[in-house]
Amino acid sequence: MAEVTAPAIEPADILWQDGVPESRLFGDVYFNRDNGLEETRHVFIRPNRLSERFARLPDNTAFVIAEFGFGTGLNFLAAWQAWRNSPASQRTTLHFVSAERYPLTREDLTRALALWPELQDLGNELIQHYPPLVRGVHRVLLDGGRVRLTLYFGDVLDAWRELEFTADAWFLDGFAPSLNPGMWLDDAILQIRHHSKPGTTLATFTAVGRIRRALIDRGFTMTKVEGFGRKREMLTGVIPESVFETPAADTRKPASVAIIGAGIAGTLLARNLAERGVDVLLVDGANSAGNAASGNLQGALYVKLGVEFNAQTQLALSSLLFSQRYYAPYRNNGWHPTGLLQMAWGDSERQRQERFLDRNHYPPEVLAPVDAAEASERTGIPVESGGLWYTHSGWLEPAALCKTLADHPNIRHCFGMEVQDLAKCDGQWVIAGSGPDIRVDRVVLCSGHRTPELASLAGMDGFFRFKTIRGQVSHLPEDRIHSPEAVICGPRYLNPSNKGICVTGATFDLHDLSPRESVDSHRENLAELTTMLPGLWKNEPPTETETLEGRVGFRCTTHDYQPVAGSLDNLEGNKLDGLYLFTGLGSKGLTYAPLLAEFLADKLTGQPVCLPRSLEKRVNPHRCYKMAKTEMT
């Protein structure tokens, strides 16, 4: 098989024998030819006592299953079915963590799962949300978010080193050790133990002595039991509850969380936590959600992927793919997946895109190059250059979406409150403002460019390397322009018409912090847009004497233009424990916010984390903080 250039990953090379998938690389079947589903239940579901353990789960908790080798997803679907058949499925979360070096294509996955009619509904949902075949971590939300699938496309050992989770049960699947010895290295078993705890169980169809002995050496009590079909024996194991371990950091679900800032970041995090059973208080100085920078009529779901596939590019790509899946339920209710054209405008951008395409291989369902003719056809208006086409991107109505996200029984609103003080008292955070004091376990600052001001109220003796950047958009009446059918991005973006208006912008003003609309900013937007799309206007562009409406917002960016999401604990002793930052999203907040809200909700509830450790470092707020000079000398 020819090597595939990152970020794409080689798919499984499937040989279909009598309707059953077989790996050409490993020369082994993915499941038993006679009854693969019953084999899964015999080997993994029953030995791990899943139905019994699901029934005992306390409300608003999570159960974590980890697996070697996702394959066709049959094991995952069987576990999902068992969980769904339990009353616990209405009040708990099922996490399933799996690694796959050679993932199936969507077409092969569809064909394989068609063999199991009783899993059809679950299988169809998995196929619908199955991620593109690109390397790294993919968090997939299923069953209304009650099932969270963390798929790592890449080497299994890399997965266990990069992912943060503790399993309640293991499915030690994959092909036979003799056919796939790389999956059964001592390092893999060391990682299994690292991600386990007293009470963690495991099951595997193998009964190989060296596997059993290695697991025993790592603290598992192992038992041989009857195998399935022609397989005489298999192994089950458990780490005894009596095993003493140093207690881990407290990861219990907080009783209450206050989120300061009801923009797209704050409302996404509030909704995510609320759906996991956390009581959330949403605090904002405005009288409703979706004001400040999130109050624009339209915003594009867009990132500019780097020529080099490094950690920064990986974070942008992961955010884009997750956000496209996350917003899908809001289609035509705040989310409009029209597609998006990233124009190759000007010599510099054209050359950059040529280098990008030469050095990277992306699946066409992520992006594809288009020439000017195809770009014109897809956007519905004449464009003078081609570019990169993102099929599953589009535009959003941020203000409307924020209001929808904030509407949940577990979210209480405290609007119209300007925060005046923020302090730790008796193990809780106290928020003081115009109304009664608020006491909560955790506080998350989602306050955009006001974050440093609020952080200073908490007594931080230093400063954050944040920048405030003014951005003004212009509202173009659709009767004056040829409205596009898809989003077009270049030196400015232009969205399709919504309620008679197409939004374009935004300016990037580092030195002008005026909240008022500026004629000069409108002039700048129109000039850049006309250069980008000279055939846009039906007649003439608006003159300087015409009144053009728009809106001013303020982006918060960091010194390295990477977002911030994480805890401030250990920054200044213990006084900041329970204080989190979620900001620095710049002009790409609509794209970054869903994945980072998922990440913060994972951390706040102690559930498996959707970001690999390498990307978690990229968003750590500690990198943006500088101690006061008096303390540094």
- Unreliable runs: 629-633
As for the number of domains, it is 3
- Provide the spatial order of strands within the biggest beta sheet: 6-7-5-4-8-9-11-10
- Helix/strand structural class: alpha/beta
- Count of DSSP helices? 18
The CATH class of the largest domain: Alpha Beta
Corresponding CATH superfamily of the largest domain? Vaccinia Virus protein VP39
Task: Give a short account of the largest sheet.
Answer: 8 strands, mixed
What is the beta-strand fraction? Answer: 15-25%
Q: Give the termini distance in whole angstroms.
A: 58 Å
Q: What value does the Rg take, in angstroms?
A: 26 Å
Proportion of helical residues: 25-40%
Q: Report mean pLDDT, rounded to a whole number.
A: 91
- What is the 3D shape? globular
Number of strands: 33
Level-2 CATH architecture of the largest domain: 3-Layer(aba) Sandwich
And the CATH topology of the largest domain? Answer: Rossmann fold
What does the model show?
This protein is α/β, with parallel strands linked by helices and 633 residues long. It folds into three domains: 14-238, Vaccinia Virus protein VP39 (Rossmann fold, 3-Layer(aba) Sandwich); 256-292 and 399-465 and 560-632, FAD/NAD(P)-binding domain (3-Layer(bba) Sandwich), CATH 3.50.50; 334-394 and 468-558, D-Amino Acid Oxidase, subunit A, domain 2 (D-Amino Acid Oxidase, Chain A, domain 2), CATH 3.30.9. The chain contains 18 helices and 33 strands. An eight-stranded mixed sheet has the order 6-7-5-4-8-9-11-10, sandwiched between helices. Strands 17-18-16-27-28-29-26-30 form an eight-stranded mixed sheet, with helices on both faces. β8, α7 (186-194) and β9 (201-204) form a beta-alpha-beta unit. α1 crosses α3. The protein is globular. The N and C termini lie far apart (58 Å).
